[in-house]
Amino acid sequence: MSRLKEIGVKVEDGEAAPAEWGNALPILHEVGHGLRQLRETGEPTVIDLHALPFGPGDEGRLFDLLGRGEVEAQIQALGPTRIWETGFPGVWLVDHRNTEDERLALHIEISSVPEILRSQREDIDDAIVRLEACIADPAGTS
Amino acid sequence: MAARKTLGESLREHGVSRRGFLKFCAATASMMALPPSMGPVIAAALEKARRPSVIWLSFQECTGCTESLTRSHSPTVEDLIFDVISLDYHHTLQAAAGHQAEAAREQAMKDNHGEYLLIVDGSLPGPNSNPGFSTIAGISNYAMLQEAVAGAKAVVAVGTCSAFGGLPAAAPNPTGAVSVMDIVKDKPVINVPGCPPVPMVITGVLAQYLVFGKLPDLDEYHRPLAFFGQSIHDRCYRRPFYDKGLFAESFDDEGARKGWCLYRLGCKGPSTYNACATMRWNSGTSWPVESGHPCLGCSEPKFWDAGGFYEPLSAPLGTPGNTLLAAGAAGVVIGGVAATLAKHRAATAVAERQPVTVEELEQKL
Ligand code: SF4
Description:
- The complex is a heterodimer.
- Helix content of chain A is 34%, strand content 21%.
- Chain A has helices at 2-6, 24-41, 58-66, 121-136, and strands at residues 45-48, 72-76, 80-85, 91-97, 103-110.
- In chain A, strands 1-5-4-3-2 form a five-stranded antiparallel sheet.
- In chain A, β3 (80-85) and β4 form a beta hairpin.
- Chain B folds into two domains: 51-228, NADH:ubiquinone oxidoreductase-like, 20kDa subunit (Rossmann fold), CATH 3.40.50; 232-364, Cytochrome-c3 hydrogenase, C-terminal domain (Cytochrome-c3 Hydrogenase, Chain A, domain 2).
- Chain B contains 16 helices and nine strands.
- Chain B has helices at 7-13, 18-31, 39-48, 64-70, 77-84, 98-111, 141-150, 160-164, 180-183, 199-212, 225-228, 239-244, 254-257, 276-279, 319-352, 358-362, and strands spanning 53-58, 86-90, 116-121, 124-125, 135-136, 139-140, 152-158, 177-178, 189-192.
């Protein structure tokens, strides 16, 4: 048991800022590059945050730096997808979750509106068919 | 055989909208370690992809690899089994047991001859070993593998045991365990090592096959470059500390608390190729180095015999290790003589596919 006592115990201050690994700032440079490209050519950029070697705290730090903007949206398709415009217009965070609310993918999307928010042509085709059926039989009896 | 549904059809039938499908594709791109710009390509390919038949054989293994697969959250194992692939035989996950299970395997092999994907977890006793060390339904692993490989399009060796021999093949290798790659020479072999492999890497390799309809680019150990192309060390968030020479010297010192590099505690990150540092474990929660433990190097060949897990990489092996190795070598020689005697019997059993007898099972090498 004596060896157990040799292990120093240090009580962390709960209020202390989380450790930072310096991986958030370089992303901002990439975001800036994407934003200029959007302005000049209209070409959107998607950055997959999943593929980056973030340490604990890096993601929170990046979210803090980007901040929250005017728009928030939620999609329900195969689980929730939460989308918000950051404090920098044109820069969006897209957080795809599965039905258990576990993260599938986390993207920064730099565009005027994230692609997944638009109504998709296939779904519009389907909507026309269903709408016509609804007009033909509003009570849905058949 | 009825034409298999495409993935697009199958998802639409389940009432999944196009948005849902695009999300599925975004998650798939992320899982396959592809840039998000590949999303539309993946969408176009997945729309048309047909579920491939998959036969999964488990040999000398601990079921950890299957456990890992069931922890995949994108796609979940249910999505994978019902929508993405047609899992026609997996003796742990399937409902059927005994003769019915084996009949399902034989039927799937017949129906999809030349087309199915064969997945193997676990190593197997080599052709010169006593086949009684590991059998399924009285058939030796070696015979079952040979039979299943004959009609397979490709073989995916999941887990370090199957890819490189793993724990069963660790010195002194009492069962004469070999890897799939040691046996299969005439079909493509894809190794997905790890003890166990990252769940999303298993599903990612399957998804990649589904999307592109071809086998991925591989490294010299037959590992898909998309997941095993970079070392743990190159993607490690503690790397800046390594570069500055700041190392934890014990698990409870100041350096450990500050999250410094774990190299001196035995981290095998610099010589290990795997996706843990970016894909992480437990639905992306964390990974060994993030939780303060050095990388064991579990996706590399012979990692069990590569010295102590807590010995720094370049440290010479101590005497105890050398003694053990010598003892192991003697064991191999003695085992080798007995194995030669068993060889003829094993070869006959394979040729006639005789069930392994009780005498063989009880025979001690
Ligand atoms: S903890 Fe391991 S993988 Fe990370 S920098 Fe240090 S030696 Fe490399």
